[in-house]
Amino acid sequence: MHAFLIVLSGIFGLGSCTPDLLWPLNNDTYTSEIINNSPFQDRTSGCNIEFAQDMPPDFPNLGVSIVDGDVIDVRIEDILYFSGNDYAFSGWFKALGPDGALFHYRSDDQTGDFNEIKAVLVSQTINLTRNLKTSHDIGISSSIGLNTWYYMSFGIDRSSGKMKIQQDAIAILELDDNFQNDIDIVFPGTLRIGGSFDEFDSKFNGHVTCFAYHSIKHDPPLSESKSQCTMTPPGFYLPICMERNMGMYSSDGTPTSNLRVISTSATCSVFQCGVKCLKEISCRYIQYDLSNDRCKTCYLLTIGAGSFNLINGQVFELEYFSKETN
To answer: Where is the signal peptide (predicted)?
Structure first.
């Protein structure tokens, strides 16, 4: 088992996972990690996910609704001991439109051999792309239907670089085009479900459930998804999306006196500083030097006389979406 830390709208949880099916999305669990200051992730993903009240036939897990530009971002922090293996991403998809990105995984390290892999629906065909440092591999599948649930898997045979897409139990793409071989997928990175990090790819319009990563295999069977995704995975954190954890920050009308410091910590973004404030019930303001993009000190502030210095940086006020404060 491998441990990792996930943060959901200001709530911290420690989870553990097996190599297969790292991130099943069902009506009990979902994850969105915001602890690292990655420029690739959408930090609004998490508590605003809506379930579609729709599920694949004979399958107990509701789909997540991916509409109106919503995406789901999952931070993949640390996966060990899987070099040299085939791999695949899989999930249940129900497309309501002919175009849109199904998923996109991008490594934080863009200097090595592996950069990213994504699958995009274009006129009801799936374009599977693997971008490497020295090559750009792409395979295009046969057409899929709309308004129908499909179990789709997207695999890479590491030893040959061959691409494979399965629709239910049938291969709709199996391509060996002299692709570069012996290239491992690289972690950490960010997995985006229902969209891509490229502006020219349209967003997916439809439903997704039981999205997963598989190590060692490039053709995970349908039976495996059904049997394993019906169970709530051990160690996964169920977010409690209280209004206290959905604040906004503004510098408008922020007082320049009568503030005191509650605590300080080293952090690497104004967003992380805000997350710390959300966890501290008495915190009303944060202070952070926006002029410096390196790690600086996060100041948590509240009303009251005490040590407060304007030269530490700009002050932001926490504005709640409701009056609930716990």
So the answer is: 1-17
CA dist 96 and 24 (Å) reads: 21
β-partners of residue 88 are 155, 214
- Dump pLDDT digits (tens) for 107-136: 988 999 999 999 999 999 999 999 999 999
The pair of three-digit structure tokens given for residue 27, joined into one six-digit string: 């009506």
Residue 309 one-letter amino acid? N
Q: Is residue 280 situated within a structural domain?
A: yes
Band (270; pLDDT cuts 50, 70, 90): low
Query: Which run of H or of E encompasses 222?
Result: helix 222-229
In a domain, 10, yes or no: no
Together in a domain, 97 and 221:
yes
Residue-wise pLDDT for 37-62, tens only, equals: 455 555 444 445 677 888 898 887 77
> For the purposes of burial, counting CB atoms within 10 Å of the CB of 1, is it exposed (0-12), middle (13-18) or buried (19 or more)?
exposed
* Rounded CA Rg of the chain: 22
Q: Which two tokens stand for residue 68?
A: 């109106």
DSSP label of 124: T
- Phi/psi zone of residue 25: left (φ > 0), alpha (ψ -120 to 50 degrees), beta? beta
Residue 138 located in a structural domain: yes
Domain boundary among 228, 255, 285: 228
Dihedral angle at the C-alpha atoms of 307, 312, 315, 320, nearest 10 degrees?
-70
Residue indicated by tokens 């670089």:
161
The C-alpha atoms of residue 287 and residue 312 are separated, in whole angstroms, by: 7
Q: Which two tokens stand for residue 130?
A: 């693997």
Q: Which pair of tokens denotes residue 232?
A: 């709530």
Give the mean model confidence (pLDDT) for residues 14-42. Answer: 43
Tokens standing for residue 235: 């160690």
Task: Look at the chain and count its residues.
Answer: 326
Query: What whole-number distance in Å separates Cα of residue 311 and Cα of residue 3?
Result: 40
Domain assignment of residue 16, yes or no: no
